Amino acid sequence: MLTCPQPPPPMVVFDPGDEATHTRAALLMHQPAAGYVTVHPTPGTDSRLAFAHNLLDALGKTTPVPGYRATDPAPIWTLAAAWTLALSVSRLTVLRAHLLSARVLDDLLTLRVRTGVRLYLVCHQPKLSAVLERALARTGYDMADADAVLSQDDLHPRDTPRPRQAATHSGEWIDLSALTTLTSYESSPACACTAPTAAELGFRPPPLPARIATQVAHRLDRTVHPHLAAHLAAAVVTAASTSQLDTARVLDLALDGTTLTLHDRHNVRQGCTTHPVPAWAQPLLRAAAFTHLLAAGERASALFTDPLGARGLPSLRDFAEHLKLRPPQPPPPRRKPRRGQQPTATIWPVSGAHHAWRWTAEENMQGCPQPPGYRTPGGVVPRARRSVR
């Protein structure tokens, strides 16, 4: 189990006058990208599950969280801890802390031990509540006045809110050449190798323009399940098949998330390869790894599985289609569809069968791995024996 050996003591911030300026300053400090998160609990509830959802909302994740028992808050708190670690959150400010229940306070103090985050508990009254005093008696705490830590005049320029990025058009499909080789039937068991880098093998995935990468990251960032977001992000940045992606273990991801090793012991694709991970995908993969380390502490576990046992979640392909991400599609038919006619389903080529289709010659397929048996000494790719539509 992943824990911080010496977590910083909680900081109790007294705001006896319940000043609006202090609350406003705390909300202005909310910048998850910079490591600062502020949670304003939902009024009128002391539910552990409700506060965990408040925390995930503050971290930018969509709630409620499907896949787990509605009465079990433990998986939700583990996901919150994983995202806290993955996003490198160093300061967690909780408003209205004097109204929190003993159970929620215990969960917050456990989160502090699991992640090492500095916990700021804002008490909007002149003294601690009895519940808060009992909870902090086990850990010790520091005290500060709200004027000292929640003053708008003392906000550093880097703490001022950043302008929001323009919303991307989530209703539009994004065709990604890297997903063309996602579906496959080959077997690629994991091995204990020291894999060469993709650059050493001369392998470059299909290029992903910065504008498209920003849109893909925007759609994945709201995903609350780390293993789903990380699985699809890895597919986009490596152009690997599901068989190769399934070989990745927690230990195959670098501690900082900058590289990911995929195995191919039978050499049916590119061989075992260590791929670079771009900055936008690193928090997603790190969150998946932290979920395993927090839940079971197993570094040999399959990286893109859920150790918390979620049920009823979509497959990787269904998840991609839900986010409107897909491989390039053949040109639409010339005839207009008849009224009431169902739209054409997304085509997911099996392995490298896409190399047999004429329309793919017009798409940006450079970097997609060739299917087994389709390489020739001259580098010419012959037509596939059959196409799977």
**What is the strand content?**
5-15%
Multimer state: single chain
Strand element count: 9
Q: Please give the order of strands in the largest beta sheet.
A: 2-3-4-1-5
Task: Walk me through what this model shows.
The protein has 389 residues and is of the alpha/beta class. It is 28% helix and 9% strand. The protein is built from 11 helices and 9 strands. The protein has helices at 20-28, 48-58, 74-86, 102-115, 130-137, 146-149, 210-221, 226-238, 242-245, 282-295, 316-322; strands at residues 11-14, 36-39, 91-94, 118-123, 142-145, 174-175, 259-262, 273-276, 325-326. The strands form 3 sheets. Strands 2-3-4-1-5 form a 5-stranded parallel β-sheet. The chain has a two-stranded parallel ribbon with strand order 6-9. It has a two-stranded antiparallel sheet with strand order 7-8. α4 links the parallel β3 and β4. The chain is elongated, with a radius of gyration of 24 Å. The relative contact order is 0.14. The model is unreliable at 157-167 and 371-389 (pLDDT under 50).
